[in-house]
Structure formats: C-alpha cells, structure tokens
Amino acid sequence: MLPSDLVKYKEKSQKIIALTAWDSISGSLAEQADVDLVLVGDSLAMVCLGYKSTLPLTLENIIYHTNAVSRGFTKKIEDQPLIVTDMPFLTYQCGEDKAVEYAGKIIQSTYAKAVKVEGAEPEIQKVISRLIRMGIPVMGHIGLTPQSYLNLGFKKQGESLESQEKIMKEASILEKLGCFSIVLEHIPKLLAKEIQNKLRIPTIGIGAGKYCDGQVRVTADLLGLNDDQPPFCQPIIQGKKLLEDKLKEWVNSERFN
Ligand code: KIV
After folding, report:
1. Is pTM, for the whole model, over 0.70?
2. I need a labelling partner for 250 at 20 to 30 A (CA). Which of 1, 32, 37, 159 fits?
3. What is the predicted pLDDT for the residue at 229?
C-alpha cells in the first residue's frame, strides 16, 4: 500500500485503523491484528526507552526501531501494514536541507513509506512542502504536539475559539501542502468533525473523538502497559498488572518448588 492509497479509504468511507509499534514484538502484534498502518511514533522514547518526553529520541534511534518493527512482520509484502515513521525532534526544525537529508535517511534505510512531522508553523510548512516535492510522503500532526510540550504542555488543544480557528486553518494548510493524511491529537470531537468534513485527505484521531476518518493508538497505552495513562486512551487490558502478576507467580513457583 502507498500512503496516497489512504485517500481512497476516505472516499469509500472505510475507517483507517493504526497502532504504534517500537520493536519486532509490537510490530508483529499490530500486523497480526490486521491494522492498516503502523506508526513508529517517537512516543517510543517514553513507552519503550523510559524517557519522560519524546525530545531525547534521535534519528539513529528511530531508524533502529523502524527496522526492528518491520522484522516483526511475517505477511506477504503486499499484505503488510503501511509503515509511517516519526521525524524526531531536531531532525526537521533546523531547515529544509537537513530535513530532506534526515527524512531521506529514514526512507532509504527502513521499510517506512512516509514520515510524520508535527506542527504547521511557517517554517514547518516550508519543510513539509520540500519533503513532498523531493518524493517523501508526509503525514501531518496537529492539536497536541508532544515535541512542543515545553511550550504547550500535554494538555488538550482547541478549547478556545481562537485555538479552534488556528487548528482548522492548519489542517487546510497541511492538505494544500500535499500531506496524505493528518493526525489530530487531543482536540474536541466537534472540531475534529468539522476538519474531517472539510478535508479531502483522511484525518486520523487520537483523543479527538469518533468522527475522524481513522483512529491511531499508542499500543502500550491500549494494552495498559504504562504507569502513566493519557486521559484519552482507555486500556483494553491491564497489561502491566497482568504480566507482573504472572511473572511473580512463575518466580514464586520456581523458587519454592
Ligand atoms: O508518537 C506517537 O506515538 C504519535 C501518536 C500519538 C500519534 O505521534
């Protein structure tokens, strides 16, 4: 599947389902669950590497983890989920030339077919436009953008009218620049609905309500593997507790047998 095929999903009103992955086990789980898209998100800095934010993640880290994810895939190549990889902090904020070089490295040395870039500030718009012209498909990401948490925190965006207008405008700009889809993170569901209606390209929501064209979740959140759970992701199992209990059970059974 090519990134541009996601637009056909929207045209057919077919929901796009995406999960994040960070290694071959999570990649395999996502593939076997039949997702359309696997995002190697920079959230792996927090859910897999133990950092408190996504900022410490490097280009080398994301390439290493993207390759681990694809090694977990076992389906025929044409049946595998589309891989989109996050551009880490500082790989696209320092100008268009560097961004092309770093995004190019991701595409060249992994099976990712697109990159995701946070924000829509004028500098970022230039970067996105250049990446797309150079043949690198881009997924946008607006609303809560974790790489800007030092300015914005991890809080819900689009609460005021001014912020809603800004997000609406950013969504239209990203579409005009040629993004093939946009992640909408932690914004009010009616704002997400308005954006979904207005855009031709699909919106993929996380904490943005049910009206998006697709949904993405951080797999570790969905499986309840973290101590800190974002308010907008209801875990489907208490994975951490379950695994801890089972491992403790095994350790005790071995120790006292
Ligand atoms: O890094 C990530 O996992 C993401 C999702 C929250 C969309 O960007």
Report:
1. yes
2. 32
3. 87
